[in-house]
Amino acid sequence: MTNSLIAGLDQTQLLALYHSLVLTRAAEERLEVLQKQGYVTGGVYRSLGQEAGAAGAAFALNRQTDGTGDFLAPTVRAAGALFLFGGELVDFFRQYMGRVTGPTRGKEANVHWVDLQKGIIGPVSPLGTMVEIMAGITLSFRVRGESRVGMVFYGDGASSTGAWHEGLNFSAVQRCPLILMVEANQWAFSTATNKNTRVHSFTEKAAGYGIGSESVDGTDIVAVFEAVSRAAKRARSGGGTQMVELRYYRRLGHAQHDSQDYVDPDELAMWEDRDPIDLFEHRILEENWATESVLHKIRRRAEEECRLAAEQAVQEPVPDGREAVKGIYTDTIIQHPWTRADGPNRSHSNELNR
Ligand SMILES: Cc1ncc(C[n+]2csc(CCOP(=O)(O)OP(=O)(O)O)c2C)c(N)n1
Ligand SMILES: [Mg+2]
């Protein structure tokens, strides 16, 4: 019998959720600083206003580190889910800074990495394709009779791609235990969602494929946790593919290069008032689940974790150019015919032809 305060969550779990929210925000804020200092290679994609969607959803799944748990395919705006699945903060910073010590040894950026033991399937860039990949992974769970589910995040813009629809249809027909998280943040770059789809809620699309769905306030972490818990229960018990729509707002531009001057300032202000961290803090204090000083310590801890992880990653090297051909098809260094002939491995140039 747990001491449930709400939604079956006890105080420790509620504070873990709070930590997850503030950790995500602190990590992304630190990334912005690192980028201004010139350390980041590529864009910085913030999830400001969307943190509760990623954290609440991942918290509802079975997270293991020995390859036996549920699987997650996050987007760049779902870093909080990645952290909950055991993605290390230091690896997150390494990826953004192209460090050779990172999971992809500097080959890929941000959340694009895989850890099969932890159930992390980093995304590939063409939008929509991870639905197909995760349909395949979760089909294997069903075929083997395992009680596991997969979760794939995608933006509202991505839901207009062919791959998204094809993957969803396959998953629905095959009753794959897959949960599609629609990050309905109302923008895809500078295209408003109403110029991208005629439906008012993505649950209407779910109905078209005959799958279960729910639409939830994506700024309310407890509501997200509850909705995803229900979806996971249905998927785990033979109910097939499910969708959960997270309603919230992309409060910053697509990435830091986007000044967002196409956004109505009043609309933005309205969503600033619905900040997921502020809302959860108010609720925690109002319900007496914890004191302000406890929350303060958690915020300090999250900031310190980010500071230490970033400091470590900053000191580490970027890869030598030769890394680019390592770990692709084989760990032997191969000079492809199209590789520059003046590189240091010139003598290996015929390795492919053996
Ligand atoms: C098939 C495909 N088309 C275009 C792109 C370029 N692209 C990257 S992110 C993005 C916008 C995505 O919008 P949305 O899915 O709503 O996610 P958000 O950025 O709002 O989180 C686009 C068009 C891509 N990666 N893949
Ligand atoms: Mg979007």
Account of the 3D structure:
With 354 residues, this protein is an alpha/beta fold. The chain folds into two domains: 11-319, Rossmann fold; 322-354, no CATH class. Helix content is 41%, strand content 10%. The chain contains eleven helices and nine strands. Strands 1-4-5-9-8 form a five-stranded parallel sheet, with helices on both faces. A hairpin with a 2-residue loop joins β6 (187-188) and β7. α1 crosses α11 (292-315) and α5 runs parallel beside α6 (162-173). The chain is globular, with a radius of gyration of 21 Å. The protein starts with 10 loop residues before the first helix and ends in a 39-residue tail after the last helix. The chain binds thiamine diphosphate and magnesium ion (MG). Thiamine diphosphate is lined by residues 77, 125-127, 155-158, 161, 183, 185, 187-189, 250, 254. Thiamine diphosphate (TPP) binds at residues 77, 125-127, 155-158, 161, 183, 185, 187-189, 250, 254.
Properties at a glance:
354 residues, alpha/beta, Rossmann fold, 2 domains, five-stranded parallel beta sheet, 11 helices, 41% helix, disordered C terminus, binds thiamine diphosphate
Integer average pLDDT: 93
Count of beta strands: 9
CATH topology (level 3) name of the largest domain: Rossmann fold
Major beta sheet summary: 5 strands, parallel
Compact description:
By secondary structure, the protein is α/β, with parallel strands linked by helices. It has 11 helices and 9 strands.
